[in-house]
Design brief:
Helix content: over 70%
Membrane topology: Multi-pass membrane protein
Protein name: Vacuolar cation/proton exchanger
Radius of gyration: 36 Å
Order of helices and strands: HHHHHHHHHHHHHHH
Largest sheet: none
Keywords: Antiport, Calcium, Calcium transport, Ion transport, Membrane, Transmembrane, Transmembrane helix, Transport, Vacuole
Subcellular location: Vacuole membrane
GO cellular component, one term: plant-type vacuole membrane
Oligomer: single chain
Length: about 450
C-alpha cells in the first residue's frame, strides 16, 4: 500500500479543526442562550417581589394616612377639643394623689368632650339604621355617660347620688335643653317659627306621665303605710318599685313598637326633616374618614374612657363636695347632668336655630323619656338581681320637682305654637330648681 501524501493529511487536519471550532461555537451559543433564558425567566420574579413590596408599603402609608385623618376628625373635629387635656390630667391627679377635688374637677371637665364625641360617633353608626331607628340609637348612645355613672354609683351603693343623677338628667333635658333651644331658636327665627308637631310631643309626654306616677306611688305608700313597722313599710315600697320598673320597661318598648312599626306615619315629617339634615351634613363633610367599623371601634374606646372618668367621679364626689363647699345634691342633680347632656344640648340648639323644632323636641323629649322609662328601671332591675335594695322613692322635694317639671313641659307644648318666651320660662324654671338644691346644705332626711 502506498503511504498517504502530505497534502491529503493537511486537508484532513484542517477539516477536523474546523469541525471542532464550529462545535465549540455552537456550545457557546447554547450556553449564552441558556443564560439569557435564565436571566429572562428571573426578571418576572424580581418584578413581582418589587411590586409586592411596593403594594405593601403603599397600603401601610394609606392606612397611616387614614388613621391620622380619623384621629384628626375625632379629636380636632369639635370645638371642645381643648377640654380633652383634662382626661390625662384626671388620671395623673388620681395616681399622684393630688387631691380628690382635683380628680373630680378634671374628670368632670373631661366628660364633656367625650359625651359630645360619643354622640358624633353614634350618628355615623345611625346612618345605616334609617332616620327613626337612627334617632333612637343616637339618643341611646347620648345617654351612655348617665348610664355608666349610675352603674358605678350602684356598684359603690351610693343610692342617693344614683337617684339624684338620673333625676337631674330628666330635669336637664326637659327644662335646660328644651328651654334654651326654644329660647335661642325663637330669638333667631322671630316671626318665622314653624308649627311644631304635637303628636310626637303627646306620645313623649304621656310616657313621662307614667314615669312620674311610678315615682309618686312609692313616696305616697311610704306615708300611708303607718303601721309602726319600718321594715314592712320599706319592704312594700321596694316591692312596689320593682313591679313598677317592669311596667316602665313594658311601656318603653311599647312606645318603640308604636314609633317604629304600627304608627310610624306620625313621625314621617320628622323623618324627612332629619333625612334632609343628615344628607346636608354628609354633603358638607363628604370626605369623612370614619366608616361604620371604625366608628364602632372609636365608640368602644370612648366608652372605656368614660367608664374610667365615671369611676373617678363617683369615688371623689363626696370629698370634692366638702372641699369645694358645694352641696352634694347640687353637684349630682345639676352639674353632672349638664356635663352628660352636652351632646344633646348642642344638637338641640343647632336644630332650633335652623327652625327644625320637631328634631329639637325629639332630642330633648326622647332623651328624657329614655332616662325615665329605660335607664331607671334597668338600674333598678340590676340592683334587684344583685340583692341591693333600691326603690323609686326620690324623697319629697325631688319628686315634687320632677312632677312640676313634667307638667310645666306638658303645658308649654299644649299647642303647635312656640316662641322664645316659652323657652325663657322653661330656662327660668330650671334656674329656680338649681338655686333650690344649691341652698339645701344638709343631707336628705
Amino acid at each position: 500500500m502506498a503511504p498517504p501524501q502530505s497534502g491529503d493529511g493537511g486537508a484532513a487536519a484542517g477539516d477536523l479543526l474546523e469541525t471542532g471550532l464550529l462545535a465549540a461555537a455552537a456550545a457557546g451559543v447554547s450556553e449564552e442562550d441558556a443564560g439569557k433564558a435564565t436571566s429572562t425567566s428571573g426578571r418576572p420574579a424580581d418584578d413581582e417581589r418589587g411590586a409586592g413590596a411596593t403594594t405593601t408599603s403603599s397600603r401601610v402609608r394609606r392606612g397611616a394616612r387614614l388613621a391620622a385623618a380619623q384621629v384628626q376628625e375625632v379629636f380636632l373635629g369639635t370645638r371642645l377639643f381643648p377640654l380633652f387635656s383634662a382626661v390625662p390630667l384626671a388620671v395623673a391627679a388620681q395616681h399622684l394623689r393630688l387631691g380628690r377635688a382635683w380628680v373630680f374637677v378634671f374628670s368632670l371637665i373631661g366628660m364633656a368632650p367625650l359625651a359630645e364625641r360619643v354622640s358624633f360617633l353614634s350618628e355615623h353608626i345611625a346612618d345605616t339604621a334609617g332616620p327613626t331607628a337612627g334617632g333612637i340609637l343616637n339618643a341611646t348612645c347620648g345617654n351612655v355617660p348617665e348610664l355608666i355613672i349610675a352603674l358605678f354609683a350602684l356598684h359603690k351603693e351610693k343610692m342617693e347620688i344614683l337617684k339624684w343623677s338620673l333625676l337631674g338628667s330628666i330635669l336637664s333635658n326637659l327644662l335646660l335643653v328644651l328651654g334654651s333651644s326654644l329660647l335661642c331658636g325663637g330669638l333667631a327665627n322671630t316671626g318665622k317659627e314653624r308649627p311644631l308637631d304635637r303628636r310626637q310631643a303627646d306620645v313623649s309626654i304621656g310616657l313621662l306621665m307614667l314615669g312620674v306616677l311610678c315615682h309618686i306611688l312609692p313616696l305616697l305608700s311610704k306615708y300611708t303605710n303607718r303601721t309602726g313597722d319600718s321594715i314592712s313599710s320599706s319592704g312594700s315600697v321596694l316591692e312596689l318599685s320593682r313591679l313598677s320598673a317592669i311596667v316602665m320597661l313594658t311601656a318603653y318598648f311599647g312606645g318603640l313598637i308604636f314609633q317604629l312599626k304600627t304608627h310610624r306615619q306620625i313621625f314621617e315629617q320628622e323623618d324627612s326633616s332629619e333625612s334632609t339634615s343628615t344628607s346636608t351634613s354628609n354633603d358638607d363633610d363628604g370626605s369623612s374618614a370614619i366608616g361604620f367599623a371604625s366608628a364602632v371601634i372609636w365608640l368602644i374606646g370612648m366608652t372605656v374612657v368614660i367608664a374610667v372618668l365615671s369611676n373617678y367621679i363617683i369615688i371623689t364626689i363626696e370629698e370634692a363636695s366638702e372641699s369645694l363647699g358645694i352641696p352634694l345634691r347640687f353637684i349630682s342633680i345639676i352639674l353632672l347632668p349638664i356635663v352628660g347632656n352636652a351632646a344633646e344640648h348642642a344638637g338641640a340648639i343647632i336644630f332650633a336655630f335652623k327652625n327644625k323644632i320637631d328634631i329639637t323636641l325629639g332630642i330633648a323629649l326622647g332623651s328624657a323619656t329614655q332616662i325615665s322609662l329605660l335607664v331607671v328601671p334597668i338600674i333598678l332591675i340590676v340592683s334587684w338581681v344583685n340583692g341591693i335594695p333600691m326603690d323609686l322613692d326620690l324623697n319629697l322635694l325631688e319628686t315634687g320637682s320632677l312632677v312640676m317639671t313634667v307638667f310645666t313641659t306638658a303645658f308649654t307644648l299644649q299647642d303647635d305654637k312656640w316662641h322664645y318666651l316659652k323657652g325663657f320660662n322653661l330656662t327660668l324654671c330650671y334656674i329656680v330648681i338649681a338655686v333650690c338644691f344649691f341652698t339645701i346644705k344638709g343631707p336628705p332626711k
